[in-house]
Amino acid sequence: MTDPVVSSGNDPQTVTASHQMGPEAVAVPAARSQWRDVWDQFRTHKGALIGAFVFLGICLFVAIGPWFWPLDPTETNMRARNEGMSWAHPMGTDRLGRDTFARVMAGGRISMAVGLVAMLLSLFLGTLIGVLAGYFKRLDGPLMRLTDMFLALPILPLLLVLVVLFREPLSAAFGIETGIFVLMVTAIGITSWMQTARIVRGDVLALKEREFILAARSIGTPPRRIITRHMLPNVLSPIMVSATLGIATAIITESTLSFLGLGFPPDFPTWGRLLFDAVSFLQSYPMRAVWPGLMISLVVLSINYVGDGLRDALDPRIRGR
């Protein structure tokens, strides 16, 4: 004797149960992936979607653009100096006849590389300190006081001091370009991890009292495994948001240092260095400052929109609306 088929209205789920004949059969809809839900929510944020396309477009422009543009960004041509926009030079030339279009692409590769690597360093430091402070009570006080100390420091003067102190030793050890790159990445990374650490610490403190964490601790799971298997996956959303916003912060910081003349050398273009070189000719040739400034603005604006969209998409309280 079998139980009747149970169905409710327009509910597509149908359950058929049999206690005497064979195993229980349950027909349910295919489960949706969590990342599919995140993508569906992200698509509803028009600004984030446009920002993602703009950011990817700029990344492709600076990454593969030099392969299709034949001019060398460091090649000088005194006969073509201070030219305006033309088919041969879409963004004109500078005072030494170097092609601005090629220099903007080359500078973008450097600025984006600095932003990405510095973001990864700051993200690693912030996540590490935040998890340790949130999970281990005895480390919470010292690590948070260290975070407060870094937050109280004036970041720009500290960066200037670091550049002045370590520029020459790193340049002598790794070469000028590589040494300055290491210096920029390290200086920006160790001065921008504090917000990530505080966000991660707050989430870890909340997670530490959840039932699945208490259950894992009750059966003797070591802290390292709890952190890697349970804590980090559940704080992934604020880490990803901090990552997107960290790229914009790192690019702005590198551009600021280069604009002050403390970044890369003149023959090693970055967007900030191009702005610095254009200041002396701002009244006569204002477009020299417009192009790198426009690229910096577009990158920072698009990343901020992407971070805003990711924050909404990764928040389950908003995702279900």
From TrEMBL:
Region (Disordered): which ranges? 1-23
Kindly state a single biological-process term from the GO annotations of this entry: transmembrane transport
Keywords (alphabetical) are: Cell membrane, Membrane, Transmembrane, Transmembrane helix, Transport
Q: Which residues span the membrane? A: 48-69, 110-136, 148-166, 172-193, 231-252, 289-307
* Highest taxon above the source species: Bacteria
GO cellular component terms attached to this protein's record = plasma membrane
Regarding the membrane, this protein is recorded as:
Multi-pass membrane protein
Alphabetical list of Gene3D superfamilies matching this protein = MetI-like
Please name the Pfam families in this protein's record. Answer: BPD_transp_1, OppC_N
Q: Does the keyword rRNA processing apply?
A: no
Regions of biased composition (Polar residues) lie at 1-19
Q: What PROSITE patterns does this protein's entry cite?
A: ABC_TM1
> Can you say where in the cell this protein is located?
Cell membrane
Q: Which residues form the ABC transmembrane type-1 domain?
A: 108-307
Family listed: Belongs to the binding-protein-dependent transport system permease family.
Q: What is this protein called?
A: OppC_2 protein
Instruction: State the organism of origin.
Output: Jannaschia aquimarina
